[in-house]
Write a structure and sequence with these properties.
By secondary structure, the protein is of the alpha/beta class. The protein has a domain at about 85-110 and about 215-405: Rossmann fold (3-Layer(aba) Sandwich). The chain has helices at about 55, 90-95, 115-130, 140-155, 170-175, 190-205, 215-230, 245-260, 280-285, 300-310, 330-340, 350-360, 370-385, 405-415, 430-435, 455-465; strands at about 85, 100-105, 135-140, 155-160, 180-185, 205, 235-240, 270-275, 345-350, 395. The strands form two sheets. The chain has a six-stranded mixed β-sheet with strand order 1-2-10-7-8-9, sandwiched between helices. Helix 4 (about 140-155) links the parallel strand 3 (about 135-140) and strand 4 (about 155-160). Helix 3 crosses helix 7. The radius of gyration is 22 Å and the shape is globular. The structure holds pyridoxal-5'-phosphate and zinc ion. Zinc ion binds near residues 2, 7 and 20.
Amino acid sequence: MNHACRATYSVGETLVDCSKCGHLLDIAYDWSRVPVPGSLKQFESRWSSRRNPLDFSGVWRFRELLPFAKDEQIVTIGEGQTILQSSAGVGKYAGFQTGKLLLQYEGLNPSGSFKDNGMTAASTHAHMVGAKVAACASTGNTSASLAIYSSTTRLFETIVFIGSGKISFGKLSQALDYGAKTLQIQGDFDDALRQVRDVCAARGIYLCNSVNPFRLEGQKSIMFRVLEGLNWEVPDWIVVPGGNLGNSSAFGKAFTELKELGLINRIPRLAVINASGSNTLYQLFEQHKIRWNSGKFDEAKINGFFTQMDSDNRRASTLATAIEINRPVNLLKCLRALEVCDGVVREVSDELVLEAKAQIGAGGFGCEPASAASVAGAKLLREQGVISPSDRVVCILTGHQLKDPTATVAYHSVDPALLSAAATEDDAYATMLRKAGVTQTPAANRPIVVENKFESIMQLLDRLSL
Ligand SMILES: *Cc1c(COP(=O)(O)O)cnc(C)c1O
Ligand SMILES: [Zn+2]
């Protein structure tokens, strides 16, 4: 993907970066050899052949748009049964006209996050090259996803590398339950990723992090389903949380290709939302004004930023653990997507993320904290006047609520008095929230303690007019 380096490799290779220039690889197709339908609407014919697993899959029913595998090589477990939905409450909370804010709920995937869209593609490629062992580093969802593909298909064994401490129990329990070999590294996600890259290179193990360009091919399908949900109309904005920036990069690539193929006539704008405790992209893009610049990005300035980050020992810290990442590996691809989509980047505090999460939950869409950054970001951009109340906006809800129940229970049950600066007492939830800078929980739905007595419960219900 380096502008100057035109090196190409065949689909049978397992490189993740270019051996000539060291940058990540991009998947490129010779579209003249692919039977791409003349219009997106033609994909609808596959709705009637859902007994064919490839037509059932929310990823592979668009297989002509990610045509790197033969049909018989494709590995699918029914991922991508996700749809675009709206919630009047969430739309109103974020400041939009009725029906204008839409939620693409990717928590409905087999392992409970959008990662399955990418992992079906990476697993397919692993299968194509005959890999026997696959590995990834993970803040939790990538490992859960890889583990489910490994256990359901038995095509390869899986090793997952996780950092110490931060992984939520919902995600860790998945990797353990699906039988993945789970290595806990004394360090954070960035450390785990560095180790797994070296280990995979040394042992010939197939690497499934989003440095793997095939993952991104699968994740393009999230945008195909968004368009499908809008009767193939292009929305005004896509809002997505940014961690390692695989999703935002994949979305930019999807729209670039659809436009080139003449399947859409315009490209929506893209908003990537960082947690303020993990805001590398925000700093680089909005503060240091780093741009893709048609491939002529300022590499020295980017490297200088990371050198400074290391020497200041700045480490990401947010309750939105899925986006707690210091060095987003897909930074350059994301900058390219931001250029193509005339994008913006914003940061949102953990307090606003949890508030948005509670609003999303009240609207019936349980998501994990990182996912709620999208709605918190849409609300912020609305307030700033960047997005107008009549714009059609799609927020990606990246992961399921049950991934991280601790954050949810902490938000709803903490005693607000313990969050004030004057609080002298503390408990585990208050400590967790205060550390994340949460000082109030206006959207909390606190459990009510009541005596184990019929009369007391009746009196309580009277007071609540229930
Ligand atoms: C992985 C993940 C993200 C971050 O996505 P990137 O593609 O790495 O930017 C956000 N939310 C959830 C729930 C995730 O699992
Ligand atoms: Zn190169």
